[in-house]
Amino acid sequence: MPAEARRQGRWHDGWWSAARACPSPNQGPRPPGVPVDLVVLHSISLPAGQYGGPQVEDLFLNRLDCAAHPSFESLRGVQVSAHFLVRRDGELLQFVAVDRRAWHAGVSQFQGRENCNDFSVGIELEGLEGQPFEPAQYRALVQLLRALRSHLPLRHVVGHEHVAPGRKRDPGPGFDWPQLQRRLRWSAARFPFSPG
């Protein structure tokens, strides 16, 4: 495949060819007739503040060694997933087809609709809530969001903190929402901030 075509990616049964496929068992069908019109951004690092290791991928694939670090004990038996992970260097991994329901938002609601997993795509950014993200992550995220909007009827991009306030705080104040909006050139109404 030519390099430009690979960068742009193509969709095949809900999988984007520009991402490395890592199919997770933690997924299921979406409710019939529900449009997927929301993206929920998260941040994750395992152990907290450490990057580049296999632990996040292992978590989503149910193979995390919970004895490897004291902080992992609370994750024993947890079954979670996101559709995508954007690593610090911009590498993109996909765990669940976008036409399937990933297990990322938990108890959540957006604009009066509960269970955001039913109608959203979950994107994890390798990072620590409240801390800055890397330029390569913004570049990869913009490319991914444009691809998703070409494939799904997306209306909004929000953080986990916006759909589960009080319970979740990611991606947190280190995430630059205005920068994302400027790079995408989408209406500010699609994002959880008001331009100054």
From TrEMBL:
It is an enzyme of class 3 (hydrolase). One of its GO terms (molecular function) is N-acetylmuramoyl-L-alanine amidase activity. Its EC number is 3.5.1.28. GO terms for biological process: cell wall organization; peptidoglycan catabolic process; peptidoglycan turnover. It comes from the Bacteria. It is found in: Cytoplasm. Its cofactor is Zn(2+). CDD domains: PGRP. It catalyses: Hydrolyzes the link between N-acetylmuramoyl residues and L-amino acid residues in certain cell-wall glycopeptides. NCBIfam families: PRK11789.1. This is 1,6-anhydro-N-acetylmuramyl-L-alanine amidase AmpD. It comes from Inhella proteolytica.
